[in-house]
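To the wet lab folks,

You asked to see what we're planning to order before we commit. Fair enough. Below is the target structure as tokens, and below that is the sequence we designed to fit it. If anything looks off to you, flag it before the synthesis order goes out.
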């Protein structure tokens, strides 16, 4: 088992990564003397696959324990389902000594985390990610929230878990599409980090998509290492953490316009292509560099056609992005691997032409 830490001024958040470690969850809870009135929140897919594993892990647990199962999918991250969690907590007489466990992908992690942040003005919680995307990115860093009026993550809070327990056994049962989604965030870290990791992902693309255990572990561990380091330096996106939004302004627009019929990781892959195209268009990188860096994305083609989307509708969706300031869209762009630019403004024409070219890029 590998251990990483997010080092904040007032708190240290351990991130535990390994294979077959979910069975240790109760001992980790006891070791940290956490609350013993537990509500475990998951989705029906995870519950179907791992109900027995959950029952075994908590078979000797002495405190209050309940399980709440929600429907899978991005639309679950809503005010309606947040209210379901509140109602369940009240019905079962939970109070401030509650410990919420989020067992699932990014949707469950964001939703359960926000419930923890707001119930009784904040109760403790744990992240147990079950998807490659959540293990590599969304379960780490304390971002919680829900979607509202078609806008992704527009309501939320920074609220840190007590710890993150990432068992790579969960990755083995993921369908191919979910693995592809996870690679979206891993690709982001490949662009943000260094040539060695970039080349590792480029050289092992096929193995990563086929869930090769050694490749998955190395890719996830490097991603976790990068994110824990960045969040330790900048918890609430006041500075360096902004680089983690590479490709995400475009990605969130794709998700919104397609009404979440596209997975977040697929949208991130498209968003990364847009970021590279816009970087070249604005003169941040030359054509040779663009061809070299965009080539890797073709190994992780999301298989969704973007060329039929209305560009003006996508642009309008981008205007609602929460990272904007003074009504202007701001982007994270690249000069090269590991050379990142933040808060770059781009005009409407350049953005529309970028979206048009990205549509053509993914229709080939």
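Sequence we intend to order:
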């Amino acid at each position: 088992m590998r251990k990483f830490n997010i080092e904040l001024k007032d708190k240290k958040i351990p991130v535990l990564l390994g294979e077959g470690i979910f069975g240790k969850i109760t001992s980790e809870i006891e070791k940290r003397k956490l609350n013993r009135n537990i509500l475990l929140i998951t989705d029906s897919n995870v519950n179907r696959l791992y109900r027995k594993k959950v029952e075994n892990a908590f078979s000797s647990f002495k405190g209050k324990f309940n399980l709440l199962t929600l429907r899978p999918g991005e639309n679950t991250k809503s005010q309606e389902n947040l209210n379901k969690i509140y109602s369940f907590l009240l019905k079962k007489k939970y109070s401030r000594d509650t410990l919420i466990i989020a067992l699932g992908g990014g949707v469950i992690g964001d939703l359960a985390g926000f419930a923890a942040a707001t119930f009784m003005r904040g109760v403790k919680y744990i992240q147990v990610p079950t998807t490659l995307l959540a293990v590599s990115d969304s379960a780490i860093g304390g971002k919680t929230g829900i979607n509202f009026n078609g806008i992704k993550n527009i309501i939320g809070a920074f609220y840190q878990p007590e710890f993150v327990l990432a068992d790579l056994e969960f990755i083995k049962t993921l369908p191919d599409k979910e693995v592809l989604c996870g690679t979206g965030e891993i690709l982001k870290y490949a662009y943000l980090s260094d040539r060695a990791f970039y080349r590792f992902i480029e050289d092992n693309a096929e193995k990563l998509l086929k869930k090769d255990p050694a490749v998955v572990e190395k890719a996830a561990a490097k991603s976790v290492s990068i994110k824990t380091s960045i969040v330790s330096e900048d918890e609430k996106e006041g500075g360096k953490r902004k680089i983690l939004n590479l490709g995400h302004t475009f990605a969130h627009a794709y998700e919104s316009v397609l009404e979440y019929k596209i997975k977040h990781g697929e949208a991130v892959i498209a968003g990364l292509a847009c970021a590279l195209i816009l970087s070249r268009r604005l003169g941040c990188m030359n054509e040779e560099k663009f061809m070299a860096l965009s080539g890797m994305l073709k190994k992780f083609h999301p298989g969704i056609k973007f060329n039929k989307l209305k560009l003006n509708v996508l642009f309008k969706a981008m205007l609602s992005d929460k990272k904007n300031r003074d009504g202007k869209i701001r982007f994270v762009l690249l000069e090269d691997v590991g050379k990142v630019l933040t808060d770059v403004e781009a005009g409407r024409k350049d953005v529309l032409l970028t979206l048009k070219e990205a549509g053509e890029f993914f229709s080939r």
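Structural context that might help your review: The chain has two domains: 2-173, 176-361. The chain has a mean pLDDT of 94.

Thanks,
Computational group
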